[in-house]
Structure prediction request, 261 residues.
Amino acid sequence: MIDRAYRTAEGLGIPLWCEDGAGPYQAIPQPGASWQPQGMPAHRPHEYVRGGTAKLLTLFRPATGEVRAQPTERTPNAVLHPWLQGAVGALLAALPPVPDPTAPGRRAHDRWWGQGEAPAWLADLPPVRLLLVWDNLAGHRTPALVAWLVERGVWPLPTPLGGSWPNLAESTQRILVRRALDGQHPATVAEIMTWLAETVAGWNAAPTPFAWGGKRAARRQRARERRHALGGSGGYTRRPLPRRHRPRYHLPTSNGDVSVN
Prediction:
């Protein structure tokens, strides 16, 4: 379902966004390379000071590369839900009206319900205006938050348990955090939050769209095609097993010739 959304949602006129919360990031020397003047290498303190942690709430649209993020010290539901509602509400306010609510993909039960028969009550929901891919966390499954989204035409697509890799917001966060913190020594949480916010602003100045199903997906598909099934079971091997041929018997015939079977 998430794969279908990445491939078809934008073509149907439905914006697709990804949401994730990254962190925590400690106010300690961060590993990684850093830019220093020649002859002035970076110095690291020998003591370990617990300077607090910061997190990054992120909304990412793969089709355009746009990022909307909020650095914060904590991400309980009391912080996550108001930020998400405000950010999604701003996205919905910027969208044009739905030209045809009955168009393919606009009805949740047509395309975005998933496996199995869709329940009848889906027909009473408003048309889908925005798709939201996010992790399967307890804070995302709060009934009040899910109801708030669905009532406004936002259809959430949770990633499976232990499989958050389809959430492209995580890929963006890794890039942003490396740019902001690698090789740096933040002394306070406020510095971390400031650097993260500045990095997000720099990213949005020249955003990079993310395409679903690129070279890595092609490599995974080729790897799956190279597997060889064993006896129709669910087991696979990456190299074909040699087949044993029947022995060749030489049988004399009545006229003295030899036949091979």
Observations:
- The chain has seven helices and nine strands.
- Residues 77-94 form the longest helix (18 residues).
